Amino acid sequence: MNNRDVSTVSFEQFFWNSSDLMAVVDIAGNFVLVNEAFRHILGWEPKELIGLSYRGLIHPDDFERVTTAFDPVDGVTPSVIELELRELCRDATYRWMKWTIRKDANVYYAVGNDITQSRETVNALAVSLEKSRAIFDAAVDSIIVINEKLQVVEASPSNDSAFAFPREETEGRMALDFVHPEDQGMILEALERGFANDEIMKVRFRGLHTDGRWVMIESRGRALRDAQGKPTGAVIISRDVSDSVEAEQALQLAKTEAVQANVAKSEFMSRMSHELRTPLNSVLGFAQILQMEMESPSELEMIGYIIKSGGYLLELINEVLDISRVESGTIDVSLEMVALDALVAECLAMVSSDAAVAGVEITDECEVPGLVRGDPKLLTQVLVNLLSNAIKYNHSGGTVTLTSDEHAGRVRLRVTDTGAGVAPELHERLFAPFDRLDAESRGIEGTGLGLALSKGLMEAIGGSLGVESEPGVGSTFWIELPLATTSTNLADVDAGVATTPASNATRSATVLYVEDNVGNVRLLERLMVHRPNVRLITSLQGSLGFELAQQHRPDLILLDVHMPDLSGYEVLERLRADPRTVSIPVVMLSADASHEQMQRFRDAGARDYLTKPLDLQNFLSQLDAYLRENET
What we know:
632 residues
């Protein structure tokens, strides 16, 4: 076999075994020879292409480039060309082929490489880049790309941004040129963390506005990395948030001012409560003493008016103070497990005499299993108010009915009356402070604060209060509370209503009263006429009171809170620190009715904290109880 024979054999093996398309086309454009790759790549059988024109396999949009491929260039006709064309597959799809074509005499030799995948990748990348560029150019926010030296290498046009500089004034400059000097360290730290941990960088700083002033800028950025993961820069998106920051600061300032206003209001109400209660203690106190000692019906009637009016004033003071606490969020709440049936029974006992006088019958149809979660003291206050209203706004011969039901872990207690009822459009006014819906014109007494206070108290303990009413039918006021999940025996749960021993102390005892108000001192001295077994020692100063306690070792100390030389708290601290007086029970008597004050003194060791004006009958019973405890 000669060299020509070897060459021919090698060419044929190369031709038929090649994975690329290989073809010989005559001068008329018809296939003369086609290799097996046409079957593998395009799906055509080689034999069915022989004699057919190559034009039938070319995409119409690419045909012109083929027909002009061998046209002379600068007077020279090329012998070899390269073309990227879309070739028709047997399944009617197209694939991209890169052809190398050589023209020799009257035939063309063509070799085609499948570049479909790489072409699609390039196209996808181009589309992605176009999208990125569109986003980059259309962004309202400022977008910059910085290199590892923090130099701006690319910037969005920011045509719609009020603060960012134009692209031509940004690219090439250092990013920190646009950052307030005092905030540059913060930016560097954020970039350092982003480069090290590949985390999203978030930062607020003062940035330079196009008009030369500093504005608050919020930026988010992420590091760019090369194939080895080394940071090469970052993309940073920024926006002017000055308006929102100012709004946040204004809101925070408003909240602070609101808190301060609430504190000031609470302090004012507490002070006013104290200042009103102090003289009221003398007014009601001496009126009660006269009531205890006088027998003339006409005199008792006049004293009754004084006590009734004073009681009304005291109720008003208490409710205004409580509403102030609810509004300021300082109401003292103690959530406990409460046996609602026992609490209802106690509340009914408290209003039974009023119901009897008004000729109103009360029916208890409550069937509440288990316990509810609430504050027993506040619940009692709310339920008594609802019952009192149901009696007050009823008619002689009317009824008040209590019912209850349980649903979805909550208990609803209803107080239904047979009164005149309230039109639906007036329901909201029922809970507005001092709005009594003209009840005063009908001679019905009240402050107009009870329902507003009750609603606030229920919400403070996690419950709710509402009303269902219509004219001529009556009204139903309801409270709702969550059930408490427990296995505690109901008999062991206190309903929250305290009882007072009725018996008096029989042995002789010494009581020290430290009080700077002469009227209050005289009141207690006069009251002790009804306790001849009690020797009362008084002091108008805290320091002297402490000395008297050391000398006489009384059985009980009654101590005021506000005094000119030493406060009641300071006196209490000295009494508890001295071995001679540490075991003597101390009961605070004060017109300051704030729960915070009460708790403060109890925590410091006070036996009890009683608020003025005093209910003298109740005070005498409590005094007997204190002395009896000390006796044991």
